[in-house]
Amino acid sequence: MFTFCILLIELTGVMRHLIGHKIRELRKKKRLTLQKLAELTGLTKGYLSRIENSAKPPPIYTLSRICSALEIDMGILLSDNKVSYLEIPEIVLNKADEHIITNGRGTPYGYIYEALAVNKPGKNMVPFLVTVGPKKRGLFQHEGEEFIYVLEGELEFYFKDQTFVLKKGDSVYFDSMFPHGGRSLGKSPAKMLVVIYSYKRI
C-alpha cells in the first residue's frame, strides 16, 4: 500500500505543481496581501511565499488553515476539476482510483494524504486516508475537532502531554486546537481514516 501511494502521486504531479499557483491566484483575487494572509492563518509571510512558489504541497493541516482564511473549499486546491458553488451536489461518490494523493516526500513529516470527497464544496467534515511512517513525530494544532480510526499498523499518538498506542481497529476523537500528532511503531507504516471537522464550512 505504501509503495502504491508513492507511484500514484508521481502520475498526478501536475496537480501538485498547481496547488501553490492556485493559492496565489485566489489570494490575489480576494485582494489579500501575503502579510494579511499570514495574519489570517497564523503562518509566516515567508512560509506562505515559499508555498506559493513551490512545486511541493504543504501538509494538509496547513492547507486547511489557508482554505479557511481564503474561505474556499479544499477541493478547489486538491482537484483538477473546477468546483461550482452554484451547483452544490447533494451526494458525492468517489471511486478508489479517484483519490487525490499528496506524496509524503513533500511534507515535513513524511505523511501521505489521500483526500476524499474533494468535489463536495461547503462541507463541514474533511475526510482523508493518512499513511504515517516512523519518522519523528509531527505536532499540529488547528481549529475544530478530529477523529482517527486505525486501519493498518500501529500508531503512537500524542495529545498535549499524553502518549497513546493505537492498534488496528482503535480510534480516538479529540479537540484539534490542542497539540497532537503521531508516528508509526514497528517496520510497517500506520494507515488511518482521519476526519477533520471545521467550525467554519470549508
How would the blueprint of this fold be written?
Elements (H helix, E strand, L loop, with lengths): L1 H10 L1 H17 L4 H8 L3 H9 L6 H11 L3 H5 L21 E3 L9 E4 L9 E8 L5 E3 L4 E8 L1 E6 L2 E6 L3 E5 L4 E5 L5 E8 L5
Antiparallel strand pairs: 1-2, 2-3, 3-10, 4-9, 5-8, 5-10, 6-7, 6-9
Summary tags:
single chain; 202 residues; alpha+beta; Jelly Rolls; 6-stranded antiparallel β-sheet; 4-stranded antiparallel β-sheet; 6 helices; 10 strands; globular
Task: Characterise this structure.
This protein has a single domain, classed as Jelly Rolls. The chain has six helices and ten strands; from the N terminus they run H-H-H-H-H-H-E-E-E-E-E-E-E-E-E-E. The protein is globular.
